[in-house]
Amino acid sequence: MEITKKANRRLYMLRMLKKFGFNHQELITVYRGYIRPLLEYCDTAWHSSLTAGQSKSLEQLQRRACRIVLGRNFTSYSEALQDCDLDSLCDRRVDHCLRFAEGLSNKLQNVIYYPLSQLFTRTSRFQGSPVPYFISLLNS
Fold first, then answer.
1. In degrees, to the nearest 5, what angle opens at C-alpha 140 toward C-alphas 88 and 133?
2. Residues near 136 by beta carbon (within 8 Å), at least 6 away in sequence
3. Closest CA to 137 of 105, 108, 98
4. Do 68 and 15 contact (CB within 8 A), yes or no?
5. How many Å apart are CA 27 and CA 64, to the nearest integer?
6. What is the pLDDT of residues 45-100, one digit of tens each?
7. Is 74 helix (H, G, I), strand (E, B) or coil?
8. Would residue 99 be called left, alpha or beta, if left means φ above 0 and alpha means ψ between -120 and 50 degrees?
9. Hey, CA dihedral for 19, 20, 22, 23, is it positive or negative?
10. pLDDT in tens, 105-114
């Protein structure tokens, strides 16, 4: 994925900033403002069609960022997320999709009625697209 290549370059910059003496909070701010937006860009459009391997590689990038920020204090990914006050990227993508779907439904409340019926999909590619995913999020 092209995203992982770009993120790896930015993680190198994060490593250099740590080497130059940036503190824990400054590194987290750089990660949140410069690296994480790259990993989440248009995530509502592509989250539903991510494979498990792709999702894992994105989480590994955030894990590496936590490892860079915490250094020797890094013990596990879940503890690092708590220490850095971060959420997992998968949880954030689901939250973004839910907020996006709710925003759409609010704008279209005069047109659509709940519960929405599931779309019949003939192909797995369409089943993994955003529209059926948003419908299942709104119905749950």
1. 65
2. 118
3. 98
4. yes
5. 13
6. 888 888 899 999 999 999 999 999 999 999 999 999 999 999 999 999 999 988 88
7. coil
8. alpha
9. positive
10. 776 665 555 6
